[in-house]
Design goal:
By secondary structure, this protein is an all-alpha fold. The protein is built from twelve helices and no strands.
């Protein structure tokens, strides 16, 4: 436990002593804020349009669902932004250690590979969670001027925590395969994009293969969370994917011990 905390503290501190955390958080919040503002303005436009038509025809304005038209759209956009951002958070976790040669010290020290991986993983997940939590300000704004249903919002944030862990696990694996951080970003983005689009191939596959491809899609399992449904099969999927990513990464790192 002490070794894990040492790795965790070191990695988390390294994010904040460099501009990496601030730049990534700033870029993400700027993009997400800009998109949230546009989605909200579009919703306001629809409200005005429906209100004017209702007055002209002497009818009643139809009820517009704030969660479906604003919250769901916003969360769908955040999916893609994190697809771009997470590989930047994970690119240095192991690749930098390899390039600087400190990975040799870690692998020969009395610290287990599991402690190294978990320390790095949870440090990155903590930063990810902090950035995602800041977007809660947008939901507070909706509460001030509207009446959103908080059930789907809270379940969606829980889903994003699991999705972030999955993204970080894949990014950590990509970082372990190279010592070049740019290559790590490209590898991580490529693997995540493939897992994002894999259910597209289900349209051209047989019934059995289509079910498998849809199940492997990391975005498909997020839809229930965004609807306010927490299904154990979705939770198990994300946790299993995180475990698999960390297990493969540990095998990659352990192979360095075998070669020495």
């Amino acid at each position: 436990m002490r070794n894990f905390l040492a790795i965790y503290t070191k990695e988390l501190r390294s994010y904040f002593v460099s501009p990496v955390a601030y730049v990534i958080a700033g870029v993400f919040l700027f993009l997400s804020g800009y998109l949230f503002r546009n989605i909200l303005m579009q919703f306001n436009f629809w409200c005005l349009q429906f209100g004017q038509r209702a007055q002209m025809m002497g009818g009643q304005m139809p009820t517009l669902n704030l969660n479906e038209m604003v919250v769901s759209q916003f969360f769908s956009v955040m999916d893609f932004i994190w697809l771009l951002v997470v590989p930047m958070l994970t690119m240095r976790l192991i690749a930098e250690e390899k390039k600087s040669g400190t990975i040799e010290l870690l692998m020969t020290s009395p610290i287990s590979t599991l402690e190294i991986l978990l320390g790095k993983f949870f440090a990155c997940l903590t930063l990810y969670t902090m950035i995602v939590a800041l977007t809660g300000v947008y939901c507070v704004i909706l509460e001030m001027y509207g009446d959103p249903d908080w059930g789907p919002i809270l379940s969606a944030y829980f889903g994003y925590l699991l999705l972030g862990g999955t993204f970080i696990g894949v990014g950590l694996l990509a970082s372990s395969l190279t010592e070049n951080q740019i290559v790590a970003v490209l590898l991580g983005f490529g693997m995540l994009l493939l897992l994002w689009l894999i259910d597209w191939s289900a349209s051209f596959a047989g019934p059995t293969a289509a079910k498998i491809l849809q199940y492997v899609s990391i975005i498909e399992h997020l839809k229930d969370f965004q609807r306010g449904v927490i299904d154990t099969k979705d939770v198990v999927f994300y946790l299993s994917f995180i475990f698999l990513s960390l297990f493969i990464t540990s095998r990659v790192l352990e192979s360095r011990r075998w070669r020495r």
